[in-house]
Design a protein that fits this description.
The protein is mainly beta and 191 residues long. It has one domain: Jelly Rolls (Sandwich), CATH 2.60.120.480. It is 9% helix and 36% strand. It has three helices and 15 strands. Strands 2, 7, 8, 10 and 11 form a five-stranded mixed β-sheet that branches. A five-stranded antiparallel β-sheet has the order 3-9-6-12-4. Strands 5-14-13 form a three-stranded antiparallel β-sheet. The protein starts with 6 loop residues before the first strand and ends with a strand. The model has no long low-confidence stretch (mean pLDDT 93).
């Protein structure tokens, strides 16, 4: 009996626009429309924006990570059911996020490959993903990028407790081995 080799699935690379990202999250960019806050200080020199719908469980954690270019294969995808998550690129380099549409409302416990997209975010832009959005950690495209993340202490602690890369379902982290769960080698060609 021979075992069939996994099929290859190439994730489409998509520019990050408000409309393209809508099923996955909210684009954070310099053109984000101002809100209707009426804070009286600095009138005329500060346009107050609206509050972002950031949701987390427990204590919020804001941290940075320095990402570097890596191989094209997407090994892991995860989702969070008690938290949105924010990723913003700092500096002058773009980065990419592989995202999959939330499917938990339909009982999905594995991402739908055809719902994956690799969004390229310009320098100084970011995304706040919806609850349940499948995602890989941000990917550098051609040079290192520092990424600011807003997360929860529960998620960061669960990930930090892992001794080796492996699937996990702890706290608010449901992380899957993509090939094992989908039967496909998932790749994204960023260059």
């Amino acid at each position: 009996m021979t075992q069939q080799a996994p099929r290859c699935f190439d994730v489409p690379v998509v520019p990050a626009t408000r409309q393209a990202l809508e099923p996955y999250g909210i684009l954070i960019d310099p053109a984000t429309p101002p809100g209707n806050l009426t804070i009286p200080f600095y009138e005329g020199s500060v346009e107050e924006g609206s509050n972002l719908p950031f949701v987390y469980n427990g204590k919020a954690v804001v941290r940075t990570a320095r990402i570097h270019p890596r191989p094209a294969e997407v090994l892991w995808l995860e989702r969070h059911m008690k938290m949105t998550q924010l990723f913003v690129g700092l500096g002058d380099a773009p980065f990419a996020m592989v995202l999959g549409k939330p499917n938990h409302a339909q009982g999905g416990d594995v991402p739908v490959l055809e719902d994956l997209a690799a969004f390229v975010l310009p320098p100084g832009h970011g995304v706040m993903i919806h609850i349940g959005t499948w995602h890989d950690f941000p990917m550098a495209i051609d040079r290192p990028v520092t990424v600011l993340t807003a997360n929860s202490e529960e998620v960061v602690a669960a990930l930090a407790r892992q001794k080796v890369p492996a699937e996990m379902n702890e706290g608010d982290v449901y992380k899957l081995d993509v090939t094992k769960r989908t039967g496909a080698i998932v790749r994204v060609q960023l260059s």
